[in-house]
Prior knowledge:
By secondary structure, the chain is mainly α. The protein is 87% helix and 0% strand. It contains 13 helices and no strands. α1 packs across α5, α5 packs antiparallel against α9 and α7 crosses α12.
Amino acid sequence: MGGYFTLRPIRDEMGIQAGVENMQWLFTGTFVIMLLLVPLFGFLTKKVSRNRLVPAIYIFFALNILAFYIAFQTLESAALSMTFFIWLSVFNLFVISIFWSFNSDFFTSDQAKRLYGPITAGGSSGAIAGPVIATFFVGTIGVTSLLLISFVFMTLATLCAIQMTKVEGLSNERKLVTSMNGNIWEGLRLISRSPILKQICLFVLLYTTISTFLYFEQAHIISKAFSSSSDRTAYFGARDLLVNVFTLIFQFFLTGKIVRKWGVIFCLMLVPALSAFSFLSLSLSQSVYLLLVIQVVYGSLNFAVQRPTREMLFTSVTAEERYRSKNFIDTAVYRGGDAIGSWLFTGLSQVVGSLQIIAFVTIPIALTWVAVGFKAGKLFNYKTRKFHETSNEVIITKKSA
Length: 401
């Protein structure tokens, strides 16, 4: 997490360096590369043992970081910036997914209950340390030197993974179990048959589309507000730092209380409603300070409230539906929504030409997202209530018998 969040501000800066007018190609490229790599990754998880695959992938990505550092030192081109942007989006999905899949295989259920808290705290610490380094050191060491710091983080993570594979009793031939080792298109068939999976799919599609609109608004505003690469990278680092700190605070003190007191429907509608208000605000003002406040509130509530609640929806479906549909949603729908949002924003910018008008036009999409959140929450409540009623009937029948 430290390695990734040190690189993330650089990714956003590279997107601007590649040209804000070209960013739709970055999102489309990420979508295409993801569709090509997921089947390859699934093949590797079935053919290569976990103890060899996990360290190998971490070593591969660590060497990628080193290669990018050398390339940035010797070359200056929009193509290199675009390649790094797409690469980091792929890096994020695979490295984080592999980490949690490896932990799920490594620890028993009882161990996980005891240790996942400290492990998550370690991840949160890395998510805070990375932006701190990017924000406060980029002006001194430069943007590309942050890659070396990330390389150190990834090297240490690789050494930890290697040590985990040496634990006695851990099978050397066991394959890695991950949600990305199946055919992603199998999930589409299951989604077409399930009303709640359809709503989850639409909810994620609208989330990624709205988030992409906000990301494009950010790119245009920041490119005009800051002239130097270091200043823009420092802004992105400060944004990530604030989002991660507030997310941690919300998770510790508010998330559980909000879900218990206000329920799933409220939690699913909260961020969509906030996004509608945010775009209304951006239609009135394009201030950097307003943008920062919107991003921090939107990002922290998304990670602390919306995402856990969204994942909760999958508990109302069968294990097969959850496994297959998440594979499709986390790849095709998630990155497809990014691509759709990027081209939609580009088309609107060519037609209306004003960021403020685009922000205003986005409000109906955000309100549609609110409605989908409401419907998904109702379906979840209905399915879980029906399940509990059925369970109670079974218990009563057994007692009567």
